[in-house]
Write a structure and sequence with these properties.
This protein is α+β, with helices and mostly antiparallel strands and about 80 residues long. It is built from 2 helices and 6 strands. The strands form 2 sheets. The chain has a 4-stranded antiparallel beta sheet. A hairpin with a 2-residue loop joins strand 3 and strand 4.
């Protein structure tokens, strides 16, 4: 799926799928572009996510992927 948003092209076929996680009201595929922008596909729309939204979801759902993308975190 391709969509222009704010003058930028988001393309799920060129972006890296970083996983499928529960977000808002259902399971979504999360994508990362080469320029470190994040988005999900919802129906026939692309929804841009902030880095902090992605960090929150991954921190709760997939700590290993969080560390892979954002670096190590302090242990309790």
């Amino acid at each position: 799926m391709k969509q222009m948003i704010d003058g930028l092209l988001y393309d799920s076929e060129k972006a890296e799928c970083i996983g499928e996680y529960y977000y808002a009201d259902g399971w979504r595929s999360f994508y990362k572009t080469a320029k470190m922008r994040y988005f999900i596909e919802v129906s026939y729309d692309i929804i841009i996510l902030s880095e902090s939204e992605v960090m929150r979801v991954l921190g709760e759902a997939d700590p290993d992927k969080y560390i892979e993308l954002f670096g190590p975190v302090e242990e309790a």
